[in-house]
């Protein structure tokens, strides 16, 4: 067509994608013309002007990079259900490789993408059904890997939330107890940390050396904190 009337909405969606947002953010289910009339502002002055005054457009397309055949990976939101299921092992592998390279934040993003794919599929299944459970069992190791990244990034409360959600469903998950114990210890929830580490030992006694190391570290930090508190309070009461 001579005038690209709907381009502003398309451009907004593309800009959302570039920013990592939902491409349909802010839109509702209605025809495109209704969308145009409903949106007084698209959030971008140039698109607002183009929406008010449609005109012929010329596009300059710049090639940013050339990828080898088969190397392109769609964003999860753009995948079909089958593509999501096929992509998860590949994304998981990429996350593991990034983690081995010490790129913890990037690895966490990969695990998050894989979890998002499976969660999207799981939402279409009946809660507690065999298919739902099968997907949940695929989500759990990815979520534990994600929590390991968050531990290293010192985002402890997120680890507490995710590990607790796992343990609400799988009470014998040793890794979830261990990671939650480390997170509790980091935020000074001493009794909770000790309880989680005790549960780890009850489920897997072979982990005693690792748990003992964590408990010794916690005790050393407590002694250090106690000494600092004594100095701090001594200064307050001596004034």
Automatic annotation (TrEMBL):
Residues 1-63 form the AIP/AIPL N-terminal FKBP-type PPIase domain. TPR repeats lie at residues 174-207. One of its GO terms (molecular function) is peptidyl-prolyl cis-trans isomerase activity. Keywords: Cytoplasm, Phosphoprotein, Receptor, Repeat, TPR repeat. The keyword Secreted does not apply. InterPro entries: AIP/AIPL1/TTC9, PPIase_AIP, PPIase_dom_sf, TPR-like_helical_dom_sf, TPR_rpt. It is found in: Cytoplasm. GO terms for cellular component: cytoplasm. The keyword Oxidoreductase does not apply. Gene3D superfamilies: 3.10.50.40, Tetratricopeptide repeat domain. Interacts with RET in the pituitary gland; this interaction prevents the formation of the AIP-survivin complex. May play a positive role in AHR-mediated (aromatic hydrocarbon receptor) signaling, possibly by influencing its receptivity for ligand and/or its nuclear targeting. This is AH receptor-interacting protein. It comes from Spheniscus mendiculus. The gene is AIP.
